[in-house]
UniProtKB/TrEMBL annotation:
Main location, first listed in the record: cytoplasm
NCBIfam families: 30S ribosomal protein S12 methylthiotransferase RimO (TIGR01125), MiaB/RimO family radical SAM methylthiotransferase (TIGR00089)
Residues at which [4Fe-4S] cluster 1 binds: 10, 46, 77
Protein purpose: Catalyzes the methylthiolation of an aspartic acid residue of ribosomal protein uS12.
Organism for this UniProt entry: Treponema bryantii
Cofactor: [4Fe-4S] cluster
UniProt enzyme class: transferase
EC number: 2.8.4.4
Keyword 4Fe-4S: yes
UniProt name for this protein: Ribosomal protein uS12 methylthiotransferase RimO
Length: 466
């Protein structure tokens, strides 16, 4: 039996997709990248906001139309949130499988071969498993350290979908990272709905985990993602100071900088406190990079409140940010909050923040121009030959430096000489090369290859799909 995964949503859901693939492969199923060959097509969905739900629903309709003979199984957050409704209302589906216990996927699919079915499981622990396939560029991997969320922000459906926060055992995390490193991974991205609360049920902390990860032998980097500002502690900064492996990259979703809106979101911070946190980070770690997110059009957000957030953005000057209009989600406290902000206004406010952020990012990237940085090569993008032939041709590749997280931040374009055997051998997906930054081009950087820093591992047995 062959299966194909149609992947949607965030890095956490992507990791779940990799775990699902691992369970199926270990039971004899074969992963195919050609949906035409698949007996089963898994739509690994997102159910976080309305636009993501629509994307996943549209995918189901399109897949059923294109592959009428395949068994379609819906997995992911949309499946968890609306399992029974979907199996009853969408005849296109052969099965709906929740995300509470991914290890049950094989027995579920055996059942779905015979009859249409939906199944969800209690949210306990952090589901993990072998990941023989990673759905991203070579050299990079996401490692989930928490599951669920107990913050209960009034706009957010995550606790409804993923349950209360649970931490993954430290030993399990360290072992997975060691295995990934042995398989040629250079960049480890730690993920969860809120890393700041990691380990509280075990009497440990994110800072303690980071220090233990840094002690693992090897040349690699670690980027913690998703740290709630209300739970940020000074020991996180101190831990990152202890090792160059731990990147001073801070992904802190502020969402708003208006005190009344922050309170209405069921958060405990304030404009003043958030501003002080950013100043502290930059004071302690001058090279620090900041990513954040903002939510516009939350119920009750006035023009003045929106301007407070815009002013905050211009004050803290994050290197990167994502700006999104509010999505009204049923069963969340904000669903019935008033006054509601017109969708057009929310979108306009998000667009304004994005415009401000683009200018800030361009300015922030200027500090890397003329500097040498290491870049993880992701893909070769083109080969350009001039009129004199291949001897003077230029190769182009794309990659990311330490200050650019996968999928959400900008990239580095790498120029190299195709007549240079060392450059051609070095600039391959999964390798790390040293480049000189030539210019900032909006949210990306242009660079020239200097030398190889870390060759792609030859003993990598893990398959990367990108």
């Amino acid at each position: 039996m062959k299966f194909f995964i149609d992947q949607h949503g965030c890095a956490k859901n992507q990791t779940d997709g990799e775990i699902l693939a691992g369970f199926l492969i270990n039971k004899g199923y074969k992963l195919t990248m050609n949906a035409d060959e698949a007996d089963f097509i898994l739509v690994n969905s997102c159910g976080f906001i309305q636009s993501a739900k629509k994307e996943s629903i549209d995918a189901i309709y399109n897949i059923r139309k294109a592959y009428p003979e395949a068994k379609i199984i819906l997995t992911g957050c949309l499946a968890e949130r609306y399992a029974q409704d979907l199996i009853e209302q969408m005849p296109e589906l052969d099965g709906v499988f929740g995300n509470g216990d991914l290890s049950k996927i094989c027995s579920f699919m055996n059942k779905a071969k015979k009859e249409r079915t939906a199944q969800t499981f209690s949210q306990n622990g952090v589901c993990s498993g072998e990941r023989p396939v990673l759905f991203n560029f070579p050299g990079s991997a996401f490692v989930k350290i928490t599951e669920g969320c107990s913050n209960h922000c009034s706009f957010c459906a995550i606790p409804l979908i993923r349950g209360e926060v649970r931490s993954r055992p430290e030993a399990e995390i360290l072992e997975e990272i060691k295995q990934l490193l042995s398989d040629g991974v250079y960049e480890i991205n730690l993920i969860g709905q809120d890393l700041a609360v990691y380990g509280k049920e075990f009497g440990t902390s994110l800072a303690a985990l980071l220090k233990k990860i840094a002690k693992i032998k090897g040349d690699f980097i670690v980027r913690p993602l998703y740290i709630h500002p209300d739970h940020f502690t000074d020991d996180i900064i101190e831990a990152i100071k202890t090792s160059p492996k731990l990147l001073p990259y801070f992904d802190i979703p502020f969402q708003s900088a208006d005190d009344k809106i922050i309170l209405a979101m069921n958060r405990t911070g304030s404009y003043k406190e958030y501003s002080a946190l950013v100043k502290k980070i930059h004071r302690e770690l001058p090279s620090a990079v900041l990513r954040t997110t903002f939510l516009t059009g939350f119920p009750g957000e006035t023009d003045e409140a929106a301007e407070n957030t815009a002013r905050f953005l211009q004050e803290i000057k994050p290197d990167w940010s994502g700006c999104f209009p509010y999505s009204r989600e049923e069963d969340t406290p904000a669903y019935n909050m008033k006054p509601r902000v017109p969708a057009k206004t929310a979108k306009a406010r998000a667009a304004h923040l994005e415009e401000l952020q683009t200018a800030i990012t361009t300015e922030r990237l200027e500090r890397y121009v003329k500097q040498e940085v290491n870049v993880l090569v992701e893909e070769l993008i083109s080969v350009e030959e001039n009129s004199e032939g291949a001897a003077n041709s230029e190769g182009l590749a794309i990659g990311r430096a330490w200050f650019q997280a996968p999928e959400v931040d900008g990239s580095v374009v790498i120029r190299y000489d195709l007549s240079d055997p060392e450059a051609v051998k070095s600039v391959v997906p999964g390798s790390v090369v040293t480049v000189k930054v030539l210019a900032s081009t909006g949210v990306d950087l242009d660079s020239a290859y200097i030398k190889n820093y870390l060759k792609k591992s030859e003993k990598n047995e893990r398959k990367f799909i990108f």
